[in-house]
Amino acid sequence: MFELNTIIRPNIKSLKPYSSARDEFKGEASVYLDANENAFGSPLSTNYHRYPDPMAYAVKMRLSEIKGVPARNIFLGNGSDEAIDILFRSFCNPGVDNVIIVPPTYGMYEVSANINDVEIKRINLTEEYQLNLEGIAEAIDKNTKLIFICSPNNPTGNSINREDIETLLANFNGIVVVDEAYINFSRQKTFIQELTEYANLVVLQTLSKAWGLAALRVGMAFASEEIIEVFNRVKPPYNINEASQQLALEALQNVEKINNWIKEILKERDTLVLALKSFDFVIDIYPSDANFILVKTADADGIYKYLTEQGIIVRNRNKIKLCEGCLRITVGTFEENQALINSLKKLKND
């Protein structure tokens, strides 16, 4: 049975979070002389001289409307990477505890583990890019605190079998982190709706992909109120800047536009896959639930080098286990995809 108190680091349990000026006074006033800000304003067209809402409450309320989740179950971070780092700092004792990752997968899980001096146990995905449940079960010990699952997975693009993730949630006494950065492009429904079923579930999402706000660095974590409280205790006091909060809030009013873009991206993805299949140096194109495709080629390094010389940049995943010979290609606009195909046609004719 999962018990949150048994996996929180002792120093985090007793941590008294920093109390900022905006934590201590949350109302409206005519004169603010409490936070040592520059009362004269900013040398910009928009004033940014006041500290932002430390909890980004307005953004959370709008996300609550869109996602159907109470604001108290939402954490906002500087990208999902901040949430990943907080998970390590909150639940993993350096040099003692371990986490499980399932390569090939998003590289920041391993980077954050290394930064926080936490052992990594790698249980590779199967040849079909699905979970090796038996291998994961054998790897779990009393010091295993987190299991990271990216679904749809990066770099493979496929969704992980839902039943397998539910098996882990039901049987693992640590936290299962389901990273849904690409969920907007997926046929699989989000795990957010399962938060009331599983106390050990943390779902990560982002505004960087479908929402087109990568430069703002706004990531989301959805979890039980108790886990979110731990996140808020550990995070820096003003972790989401005012510009990002304002622009994110503005963007979140445009759900219909984003949904139309998603449809267009999926249409372009299908067209791109069909075009790539015509090249004899393309060995396989793996099924994708994301805004990118993983393409197995006869010469990934050579094709990558050639495309770079043409000013077209894709991601070379050739050196990653289970992705040998593969290029990861983001679905671009119609014009960008055509530029890629036309360049590959020239390569074929050379």
UniProtKB/TrEMBL annotation:
Complexes and interactors: Homodimer.
Cofactor: pyridoxal 5'-phosphate
Pathway: Lipid metabolism; Amino-acid biosynthesis; L-histidine biosynthesis; L-histidine from 5-phospho-alpha-D-ribose 1-diphosphate: step 7/9
Organism of derivation: Pedobacter psychrophilus
EC nos: 2.6.1.9
Protein name: Histidinol-phosphate aminotransferase
GO molecular-function term, one example from the UniProt record: pyridoxal phosphate binding
A Pfam cross-reference name: Aminotran_1_2
Catalytic activity reported: L-histidinol phosphate + 2-oxoglutarate = 3-(imidazol-4-yl)-2-oxopropyl phosphate + L-glutamate
HAMAP family: HisC_aminotrans_2
Keywords associated with the record: Amino-acid biosynthesis, Aminotransferase, Histidine biosynthesis, Pyridoxal phosphate, Transferase
Keyword Transferase: yes
Entry's family note: Belongs to the class-II pyridoxal-phosphate-dependent aminotransferase family. Histidinol-phosphate aminotransferase subfamily.
Nucleotide-binding listed as a keyword: no
